[in-house]
Amino acid sequence: MSLARYRRCLWGVIWREALRFAQQRERFFAALVRPLIWLFIFAAGFRSVLGVSIIPPYDTYITYEVYVLPGLVGMIQLFNGMQSSLSMVYDREMGSMRVLLVSPLPRWYLLVCKLLAGVFVSLIQVYAFLAIARIYGIDLPPVGYVAVLPALVLTGLMLGSIGLLLSSVIKQLENFAGVMNFVIFPMFFASSALYPLWRLQEANEILHDIAAANPFTHAVELIRFALYGTFNSASAAVVLGCLALFLGAAIVAYDPARGLAARLGGATG
Amino acid sequence: MMALATSPGTEPLPGSFALDVRELSHRYGGRSALEGVGFTLAPGELIVLLGPNGAGKTTLFSLITRLYDRQAGEIAIFGADPRRAPGPALAAIGVVFQQRTLDLDLTVRQNLRYAAALHGLPAAETAARIDGEIARAGLSGRANERVRRLSGGEARRVEIARALLHRPKLLLCDEATVGLDIPGRQAILERVRALAEEDGVAVLWATHLIDEVRPRDRVILLHRGRVLADGAAERVATEAGAGSLGAAFASLTRNGAA
What we know:
The complex is a heterodimer of chains A (about 270) and B (about 260).
Chain A: H1 3-23, H2 25-46, H3 64-94, H4 96-101, H5 107-136, H6 142-169, H7 176-189, H8 197-203, H9 205-213, H10 215-227, H11 233-253, H12 260-264
Helix pairs in contact in A: 1-5, 2-3, 2-5, 3-5, 3-6, 3-7, 3-10, 5-6, 6-10, 6-11, 8-9, 10-11
Chain B: E1 19-28, E2 31-41, E3 46-50, H1 57-64, E4 72-77, H2 86-91, E5 93-96, H3 108-118, H4 123-136, H5 152-164, E6 170-174, H6 182-199, E7 202-207, E8 218-223, E9 226-232, H7 233-239, H8 245-257
Parallel strand pairs in B: 3-7, 3-8, 5-6, 6-7
Antiparallel strand pairs in B: 1-2, 1-4, 8-9
């Protein structure tokens, strides 16, 4: 099969996701309001409570809003990745996952297309958020807006593949509440999104170790450094490794022979 | 591309069947969904796969379309094994699913463009095909309308149009008339019969509605994962010693259950 067919398929999946996104304006606003509430209310209130000393990539004292910004970018992608996991479960129930999977292109490729479409949507949300943050007064070096793009693609793919893996395990729609409690909240709070790791270490050694091992911490740090035009190679390595691990597991989970679908599926007919 | 074996008395060559299923069995955990199912479907032939809900129809379709792999037995689609050659096998198949699978907030044309892209069809060629299929579905004036605004029957016709975009030689329809009124069901059945008779598309039509069967239709009765009968509807009825296919079905499933 020619490369052109792969390209057309990828384009088609992204195009459909973009159309659906354009028609669900509430989803866009909800995705935007969540981090903005954290930025305008939580971070503003926390400003005086939490002092942040000079740590890389920052070369000066920063306000808490500035510190928390990359964490909120990560939050957008985390929710987006889990939401596309929700839509996978929903899609599977509605059968449009079936439509995707009867394409003659290899299944791993179809899943990657689906992930990239989700990342594309998260990019729109993130840049809209960064634009509002800039108006609010959080300035980033211009190079940061460009340098963060490849970082966002990587982190978006990693978080999306965690969602994809979950979607192969979760059978029912209602279980998204469980995903919130057991995946999104622990990943978000036990990370460097809201507080630097060294502050966590002062508070609780175990929590620090958990946060240091949390893939979401490394997603946030990769984004944080990229926003200042620098490259955090340790975080990049962790994000890449986790992406390979979770994507590989998700592809196995959706594999017709070994996958969970073969054991769980086919309740009807 | 594959011709039927024409000379009488000779066995068809491997791959000359649109669909060749042999000794197919499948279990979910401890529950058996299919047991030793086997049949062949020739190009241009229509088979009505008749069975109540839970007979194994959807499982059979899932195995043919490789949603999951078969556990025992063999499947060949124009000679291509979905496990070893999923690309060619899936490229030959068009599927109409039991569930509604259109994006309700996208237009008819957008839904079809998405399906064409999934098959990697080039845009220039696709536009003409999409218009052609929309016209054949009798929806020319409504191509840019959202699917949400179509009736159930119209949406089904769009799903058939979508299944035909890549010119499949085997069409699988899983309860495609479920939830439609009688004129809607008739329109869809006629369209599918014409596809088999005029365009030479092989059709596997799964249903639990006996009134969709004509006396000369080839029928496969599927019950609890087993094939109870395979043949022309009128012959199946006669051989079961019943006056009608419905009575034959009732008596065969009673025996099968015993």
